[in-house]
Amino acid sequence: MKDQLYLVRIFALLCLFVLAACTPVTPVAGPAVTAEPATAATTADAPDSSNFPVTVTSCGIETTYEAPPTRAVTMNQAATEIMLALGLEGHMVGTAYLDDEAVLPEWQAAYESVPVIADEYPSQEALFAAEPDFVFAAYRSAFGDEAAGSRTQLAELGINSYLLVTSCEEASLRPAKITFDILFAEIRAIGQIFGVSERAEALITEMQADLDNIRTVVGEVEPPTIFWFDSGDDAPYTGACCGGPAMLIEAAGAENLFADLPGSWADVTWEEVIGRNPQVIVLADATWSTAQEKIDLLNNNPAYASIEAVQEQRFVTIPFGATTYGVRNVEGALTLARGLYPDKFE
Fold this sequence. Notes:
Shape: globular
Distance between the termini: 59 Å
């Protein structure tokens, strides 16, 4: 039966690509997949079925769930960690694409219980081999032609999906500014889909308490100006007014050097960085652009010697994953606050 279902899905997807001129079908909840989850859920993991069916809208696509998904695949670390933080590893049959070297230690054991179906985005063949009934992603690239395929195509194959609102395919559906309240709404939506709303509320309460504690510990301060250095040697890529870095900077009690630029991210020039003279430089640590590589660049080029943060060696390293919308954001804000005000967190 599983082999037949797999072949039907592959054949259906090929038909969709060939018949690209056909009128799109409005996605609806697909039929329930009867296969058992890859990892049996424990009693503690059992969802609350009393609130089903539930209808959830994600980036303009409305889906009704008659029951919680049992064979979820997560694409991107942020989506994976939201699921793990909600104790939903028993409902997962696959995951893919870490931005950092590992998930946070508290979720490592749960992560290791879920098959990794690809180091980056899986092919459609690899995805369908896992027989998912739900695909959850942080970035719209996960639903590209070279990855899972569009969410509409997946729905027509009986595979529901969720995409974080910060990366909606249609730009008008994305929030003008990223906030923790919007993140909490995303966590609530996943909690609804999987019947673990109480768990979602408990997680949100804990995250809000940690944010409140940062503000209490930092107190009234003269906020330092921060240049968020994501990547780029010749033209640095930085956090602008309204994205993840800006949210973390505000939560940590600091001032964004490029808060006047629109959007989440922006390419700037080194002349602008030097002219604005940041007091602190935050270094995003990613596999494709490490914090140490950026430190070497700043320290070895005489042109940057006049920057106050370079003179004082005031660098704070933040894992790249902390800037992606997800449960790591609070940990990222705490790491930043500790780096800015070490005496207050002793």
